[in-house]
């Protein structure tokens, strides 16, 4: 514990600090709870999107071997633009998925194998899910980093700052009380001495 001056002005500083800590602590605890809740929700969404992606792959399993045929998918289906926007969650800016635009080239339905349309549809849905999953993972990472910082602050206030301020106030009160008692005793002794001198003369 840092050294504390045993004075009335230090007592006022410690009381003000304690008041501040107690005023900010509930806000920090609320922020911590909000972050924990949002992270749980995002993890649920992340699991759901991952399951969705796996279901798509499982549903395509019977005809996925057709992808072994040489076909210029990158030329036919290219991600042109990923649009995101920012959202503020408990003071943290996170990217939120808005849309995914593809650049598609037209193709002749008579010259392409019949499975290509279904494959392009599957690839576009998988690409969209991959982008959404990536952004959800990024959101969770950003919020977990803020949660760590907020938890450290809550612990600092609860376990260090508030107990230190309370202990400092207690020590200053004891010291000032002792000083006041000593002053009263000295006053009584001085009064007795004055009375003795007055009686002696």
**What's the count of strands?**
2
Low-confidence stretches: none
* Proportion of helical residues: over 70%
The number of distinct helices, counting runs of at least 4 residues, comes to: 3
Shape: rod-shaped
Radius of gyration, Cα only, in angstroms? 35 Å
pLDDT averaged over residues:
87
Beta-sheet strand percentage? 5-15%
Strand order of the largest sheet: 1-2
Query: Helix and strand string, N-terminal first?
Result: HHEEH
Q: Biggest β-sheet: count, sense, barrel?
A: 2 strands, antiparallel
Structural class: alpha+beta
How far apart are the first and last residues' alpha carbons, in Å? 55 Å
Features of the shown structure:
two-stranded antiparallel sheet; alpha+beta; 2 strands; 201 residues; 3 helices
Question: Which helices and strands, and how do they pair?
Answer:
Elements: H1 8-59, H2 73-76, E1 77-89, E2 92-104, H3 115-200
């Amino acid at each position: 514990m840092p050294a504390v001056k045993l004075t009335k002005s230090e007592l006022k500083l410690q009381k003000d600090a304690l008041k501040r800590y107690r005023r900010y602590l509930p806000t920090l605890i609320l922020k911590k709870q909000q972050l924990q809740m949002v992270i749980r929700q995002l993890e649920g969404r992340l699991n759901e999107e991952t399951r969705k992606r796996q279901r798509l792959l499982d549903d395509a399993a019977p005809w996925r071997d057709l992808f072994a045929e040489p076909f210029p998918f990158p030329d036919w289906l290219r991600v042109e633009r990923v649009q995101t926007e920012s959202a503020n969650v408990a003071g943290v800016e996170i990217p939120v998925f808005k849309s995914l635009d593809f650049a598609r080239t037209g193709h002749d339905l008579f010259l392409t194998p019949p499975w290509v349309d279904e494959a392009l549809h599957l690839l576009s849905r998988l690409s969209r899910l991959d982008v959404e999953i990536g952004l959800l993972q990024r959101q969770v990472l950003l919020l977990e980093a803020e949660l760590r910082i907020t938890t450290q602050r809550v612990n600092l206030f609860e376990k260090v700052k508030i107990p230190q301020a309370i202990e400092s106030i207690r020590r200053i009160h004891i010291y000032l009380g002792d000083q006041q008692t000593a002053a009263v005793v000295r006053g009584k002794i001085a009064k007795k001495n004055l009375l003795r001198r007055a009686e002696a003369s």
